[in-house]
Amino acid sequence: MKSEKYIIEVVNAVKKYKETIAVNDVSLNFERNKITGIIGRNGSGKTVLLKCICGLTKLSSGKIMVDGKIIGRDIETPKSIGVIIETPGFIQEFSGLKNLEILYMMNNKKDKEKLKEVMRTVGLNPDDKKRVSKYSLGMKQRLGIAQAIMENPDILILDEPTNALDKHGVDEFRQLLLKLKGEGKTIIIASHNSADIELLCDTVYELDGGKII
Question: For a designed S-S bond to 197, which of 19, 25, 27, 37 qualifies (C-beta 3.0 to 4.6 A apart)?
């Protein structure tokens, strides 16, 4: 049943890899139109939990509902979702704009001007013909953010989104997230950056050893 308050509901989620329990009986909810932070050390289970919410990894037990639909039963992956998990994969010999165009066209969308606007929003020049292989780490991260937001998703799931960004880039990114929240987006951030969490998040969960603490 669809919840008016929560867009994502995680119920007794468990993910095991052989003898390792990456997510251990986690239950939590994510409010609509809010920014929720997930903090924890490397190996705490943050990334695995995000992958399960996106439908990229199947739970061993428990359930995750997005807009009332159970992932892996009612739907394989949430429809209106933008994701950065780990390093975004791009075709290295193409420009940033060309990479976005290819991904955009896979969903039968062809608005090149919209893609240019999205690139400018994240601080990239859409007319730059430079190959992605020549991009700095910060530029690649910005392109990953552009990919996540280019289809105007209702939900954004961002794993360490400010990695490799300089101070100016981090400030711009925070302003962008607050703008997107103001437009009604639901945003989940997993981050080591405590400043991101403190400045941006309405609710914060901490994971340790796969459990909420």
Answer: 37
Q: At what angle do helices 112-121 and 96-105 cross, to 10 degrees?
A: 130
What global pTM score does this model have?
Answer: 0.89
CA nearest neighbour of 158 among 169, 145, 171, 139: 145
Amino acid letter, residue 70 = I
Give 122-189 as a 3 state SS string. Answer: CCCCCCCCCEHHHCCHHHHHHHHHHHHHCCCCCEEEEECCCCCCCHHHHHHHHHHHHHHHHCCCEEEE
Homologous superfamily of 1-80+155-165+185-213: P-loop containing nucleotide triphosphate hydrolases (3.40.50.300)
Mean of pLDDT values over 157-168: 87
Distance separating alpha carbons of residues 187 and 159, to the nearest angstrom: 11
Rounded Cα distance, 185 and 188, in Å: 10
C-alpha distances in Å from residue 10, one per residue of 69, 95, 196: 12, 38, 23
- What are the tens digits of pLDDT across the range 168-191? 888 888 899 999 999 999 999 998
9 touches 155 (CB < 8 A): no
Sheet of 35-39, strand order: 81-84, 155-159, 186-190, 35-39, 203-208, 211-212
| Domain coordinates in residue numbering, the chain | 1-80+155-165+185-213, 88-153
Task: Please check the confidence at residue 114 and state whether its pLDDT lies above 70.
Answer: yes
